[in-house]
Amino acid sequence: MDYINAFWVGGLICALTQILLDRTKLMPGRIMVLLVCSGSVLGALKIYPVIQEYAGAGASVPLLGFGNLLWKGVKEAVDKEGFIGIFMGGFKASAVGISAALIFGYLASLVFEPKMKK
């Protein structure tokens, strides 16, 4: 049942994002920022952890989950370090995920032949 919950929640998030891309004049970058900010706000309101507990990776992998991760990192750093934690927390919490994305992206560029669009 965990796999089904992850699938339908993650699919719902992606479907709603696709509807925003198709039906509005918002640029993709702005929609991505909206998703990260929404994840942070939902995390601050303690709504997103409940969704993440229910859906697992279906809620933690999309950009909403990244926003929630940034929020948790900032909150923990502010509690521990004070004001400077606002600037440090997001970097500490997301460092592994961002590093992995950069490393795997670089490795993929070595395996495949990247081309510029014409």
Automatic annotation (TrEMBL):
Alphabetical UniProt keywords: Membrane, Transmembrane, Transmembrane helix
InterPro entries per record: Spore_V_AE (IPR014204), SpoVA (IPR005562)
Any Pfam family the entry gives: SpoVAC_SpoVAEB
Transmembrane segments annotated in the record for this chain: 6-24, 31-48, 83-108
Statement: the UniProt record of this protein carries the keyword Magnesium: no
Alphabetical list of NCBIfam families matching this protein: spore_V_AE (TIGR02839)
Protein name: Stage V sporulation protein AE
